[in-house]
Structure formats: structure tokens, C-alpha cells
């Protein structure tokens, strides 16, 4: 088992023929992901050569997401689309009813994200959105949708949800000997689709996942809301880390959502909320990994 993505997932790439889309499609294919095509209205009917990954492999380019889904049975789209076109690309994926849209793009205007997220809600939430400004989702040994390196770790019993891409990679490396059911990078923008709570609920229901690692960062109240959800609904052990203890007040740090205003959104406040919900919180990523390791060892 895994969450959101498994060995049966069929992936299309919106923006596959661009530089970033091509590079990461190649990496997804090399990791064993079942990428079945791309979408680019200006290059519809053409094909893209990936024979350097697999002998003779070419992937069709479709004019629309709906056409790609009809022809390939795709149920996942990964968006490598420039920020000014990302809103329209996301809306196209939502209107086509694709079950999962992973929006990698960084720098999408917040009002554009708000628009396509509201559109997803208004049309019945048939499309789960991960991102934007995220590394994607990987179920090691099964599939990989996004830019997460596939060779850091293998399949295992830990579920990981993280705002930070680089901390996702570090945590996967620190616990690579145990392995992961799924790692989800939800992104650090002020408005995102899939939240900590969404991933926590999915990991709680996933039989493969025994321990959950949750990485947050300063800004907003997502971690406090996740803590309240954990206290009420999560029975599996959760280990947490909050990035940004040394961030100065009022300065945006890295992600657009990582800004502290007064006492709101501080790392300390988030840490206290999580600990009050029974979550063990590490002071560093390495300490957090060690806490998770201890829990896995105790369950063995």
C-alpha cells in the first residue's frame, strides 16, 4: 500500500517538452514511474524521444489533458508549466477530472492558486492537488511524480509529509535504511491543495505506514491545525520537526508562506502545539530522524 500514488498510477506531464519537463520526465522514467505521455497544445500529435532511458521509448504529446486521459488512461498529471501559464494548466487538469494533479511550479501568483483551488472545490473536488511549489510525491519502489530523487531510499514503513523539499530529501536519507511508504512534499506557498491534515488522514488509513514524520516550518497556522487533528484522529505515532527557530520576525524565509508576524506562526508555538498533541518534536532534522528510528525499533 501507499498513499496518493502506487504502481498502477499512469502519469502524464503537462509541459513535458520544456527543459524542466523533459529533464524530470527522464528522471521519473528512470526511477520506474509509468509515464505515458505529455501535454502541449502547440506540439499535439508529436512525440518525445526517451530512448536514452529505455531503448526505443517515445512518448506521445497530446493537445489537452482530457485527450491524454482518454488515450492513455492517465490518472496523474505532473505540471512543469511556467508560472504565468500554471493557472490555466491546472484548470485544464481539473476540468478533465484527473484524480491527482502535482503542481511543481514555483512562483505562481497567490491569486492564481486561489483561483484554481476554488475551481477544484466548486467542481466537486474530483482532483487532488499537491502543491504548488512542491517536490511532488514518491512511493518508493512503486512510482514517482515530481522531482524527488528516487535513489535516496526504498520502500518501508514510514510516511512523510513535508512543507520543505530539501528537508524531505534529508529525512528520506536519514531514514533510508528503514524506508518509506510514501513521501509527500506539500509545498510552502500560502495556499496549497493537499495539507498536512490530508496526508495525516491518508497515512492513518494506510496499512503499510506505521510511523508518520511531519515536517513544518514557520508561518501560518497549518501545523497548529495539524496538531489538533492528530490529537483527535491519529492513532499512529507521529514525529515532527519545525524549520525556522532562528528566523527574524517579519522576514520571508525561503517559501512565500514562511513569514512570522508577532507571535503568530513561530516555530516555538508550533512545537508546543504538536507536543501538546503527543507528537515528539526534534530540535534538528537528525534528531527528528532518531526519534522516528526509536519508535520503529520499539515496534519491531
TrEMBL record:
Domain (CoA-binding) ranges: 4-108
Binding site for substrate: 169
Residues annotated as binding CoA: 17-20, 43, 104-106
Active site: 255 (tele-phosphohistidine intermediate)
Biological pathway: Carbohydrate metabolism; tricarboxylic acid cycle; succinate from succinyl-CoA (ligase route): step 1/1
Classification via SUPFAM superfamilies: NAD(P)-binding Rossmann-fold domains, Succinyl-CoA synthetase domains
Record bears the keyword Nucleotide-binding: yes
Annotated GO CC locations: cytosol; succinate-CoA ligase complex (ADP-forming)
Record GO biological process: tricarboxylic acid cycle
Gene3D superfamilies: NAD(P)-binding Rossmann-like Domain, Succinyl-CoA synthetase domains
EC number: 6.2.1.5
Keyword tags: Ligase, Nucleotide-binding, Tricarboxylic acid cycle
Catalytic activity annotation: succinate + ATP + CoA = succinyl-CoA + ADP + phosphate; GTP + succinate + CoA = succinyl-CoA + GDP + phosphate
Any GO MF annotation of the entry: succinate-CoA ligase (ADP-forming) activity
HAMAP family (alphabetical): Succ_CoA_alpha
Stated role: Succinyl-CoA synthetase functions in the citric acid cycle (TCA), coupling the hydrolysis of succinyl-CoA to the synthesis of either ATP or GTP and thus represents the only step of substrate-level phosphorylation in the TCA. The alpha subunit of the enzyme binds the substrates coenzyme A and phosphate, while succinate binding and nucleotide specificity is provided by the beta subunit.
Assembly notes: Heterotetramer of two alpha and two beta subunits.
NCBIfam families with a match to the protein in the record: PRK05678.1 (NF004230), sucCoAalpha (TIGR01019)
Family named by the database record: Belongs to the succinate/malate CoA ligase alpha subunit family.
Listed name of the protein: Succinate--CoA ligase [ADP-forming] subunit alpha
Lineage per the UniProt record: Bacteria, Bacillati, Actinomycetota, Actinomycetes, Pseudonocardiales
Gene: sucD
